[in-house]
Amino acid sequence: MRQTQGTKGRTSAPASVCPSMRCLKKKTLPFLLIFVSLYVHRTPSQEAHPARQRKPFFERLRRLEEQFQRFQQVTLTHLQDIANNYNIYYNMDARFQSLVDQSQAVALAMNQSQAAIQGDVAHLKTWYRQSQRRNRKVDARLQALDLSLSTKSRQWAEKEREQKAQREAIASLALSVQALQDALASLTRQVHSQDARLAALEGQTQRTSSGTVALGLTTAPTPTQLVQRGPGSLQLWRARQVAKSSPQHRGSPHDFTGHVQEMQKFQAPSSHQAAPPRTHQGPGNICGMDPVLIFPNTSTENVIFLSPGFLMPLRALSFCSWVRMATRHLGTLLSYATKDNDNKLVLHGRDSLVPGSIHFVIGDPDFRELSLKPLLDGQWHHICIIWTSVEGKYWLHIDRRLVATGSRFREGYEIPPGGSLVLGQEQDTVGGEFDSSEAFVGSISGLAIWDRALLPGEVANLASGKELPTGAILTLTNVTSVGGFVQRAKCTCLEQCP
Questions:
Q1: In the chain, what is the straight-line distance between the N-terminal and C-terminal CA atoms, in Å?
Q2: Which tens digit of pLDDT belongs to each residue from 91-119?
Q3: Sign of CA dihedral 177, 178, 181, 182
């Protein structure tokens, strides 16, 4: 078995390696020669004593042969091990080179997979940051909604108390009306009694009229004549007669005047005394405005960029514009974003829970909800939203009328400069990431922004189509880019625009 294994090991070895038996013979030949020489030298001594030394010599020879056989076996075993080890280490450089190539390929694949993983991690981090920012927005809006709900619940409670007080006032008023009706009934009875007296006096005056005319005296007018003159003359005459018939009122002109006033309080209004009808005065025809910008649909490409934006920090703001809504959905009128906060200044109505309302945001998450229901009729309206950091006061004007006001909104805050200002879209990043559900659909004209709070007279002049107040920092002349399907229309008057 060992020889077979050695043969198998030699088959893979090169031709320069000799077979094990041949090499063994070449190596053992010198030992045999030495052994024969020693034997020749020792022969004479053995011949002297042939009987005594022959036996030990053969024993030694036998032992040497046994040792030689054992040496031969050990040598064969070592040669087989050497052959096996050579088979193992043969062509080791090629194997090492193959392993090096494989390790380089594995390292390259690892680098590629690591780059791909790093890219995925970067995308995941970006998505996570955006999710965190949107979650913060949602949390802030939920907190604001909770605050608004609590405020409205308090308002409802106050309204219920006011309604209760009104019901009590109505009940007391009903009692007062009943008392007044009783007083009117008694006064009517007194008037009827006075009519009887007047009839008697009229008969006396008719009997004495002829004698009085003959004497050249001026007669008092009869009740019939007073009726022809008007109801006021008749009541004045009746008051005078009552004053004359009452002894305690004779000679007191002040008491007579007070009685006349008491009579006039209960006098029914005549037909010619009716109040004039009320007339509604609308904004009228507004002409000579800037070009009208029309946003036809909710495409995210419909956006207008204003430049240079805000160059200085704003501690006060006035935003005024003519607006016509094409749908019943209030989109984003204005959006101002910076690197720190993409909602530094926003006017949009997507997240509003009240139909026809917008969120007036300054420095997200703080906002106020403003109602713009008058804008949902498809007509042109003028709006002005004014804010000042002094006590955080704000005002909303629609068509010259103040419809909402408040305080403690971003008190002492400054709107920073250097951001991106757009119309018609809401920015989730500086200058991008628009959402079609937040897009504005309608028309805008005469837009202007001031870094101060406009006075009510200036707002009224704007809504009347007069010139812009001084100090406007941005108008539609600052438009630098019009994207998407936004159209420019030149109209003589706003009512004539399509």
A1: 108
A2: 777 878 888 999 999 999 999 999 999 99
A3: negative
Q: Which pair of structure tokens corresponds to residue 178?
A: 């009943």
Number of domains present in the structure of the chain: 2
Spell out a b/e string for 309-333, using b for 16 or more CB atoms within 10 Å of the CB, else e. Answer: bbeeebbbbbbbbbbbbeeebbbbb
376-379 long-range contacts (CB < 8 A, ≥24 apart) are 376/325, 376/328, 376/330, 378/324, 378/325, 378/326, 379/324
Which one of 44, 73, 89 terminates a domain? Answer: 89
Beta strands 442-450 and 472-475, pairing class: antiparallel
Rounded distance between C-alpha atoms, residue 6 and residue 227, angstroms: 157
The DSSP-derived string for 388-439 is ETGGGEEEEEETTEEEEEE--SSTT--B-SS-EEEESS--SBTTB---GGG-
Where the chain has pLDDT below 50, the residues are 1-20, 48, 210-220, 223-236, 239, 242-283
Residue pair 3/73 in contact by the 8 Å Cβ criterion: no
Q: Which two tokens stand for residue 272?
A: 């010619």
Residue 170 lies in a domain: no
Single residue among 89, 107, 125 that ends a domain in this structure:
89
- H/E element holding 337? strand 334-337
What DSSP string runs through 347-375?
A: EE-SS-SSTTEEEEEESTT-EEEEE-GGG
Q: Which pTM was predicted? A: 0.46
Question: Domain of 485: which CATH number?
Answer: 2.60.120.200
450: left (phi over 0), alpha (psi -120 to 50) or beta: beta
- Max alpha carbon distance in the chain (Å)? 225
Integer Cα distance of 19 and 25 in angstroms: 10
Looking at the domain assignment, is residue 251 inside a domain? no
Residue 479 domain boundaries: 292-496
Strand pairing partners for 482? 304
Q: Which residues pair with 8 in a beta bridge?
A: none
DSSP symbols for 184-241? HHHHHHHHHHHHHHHHHHHHHHHHHHHHHHHTTPPPPPPHHHHHHH-HHHHHHHHHHH
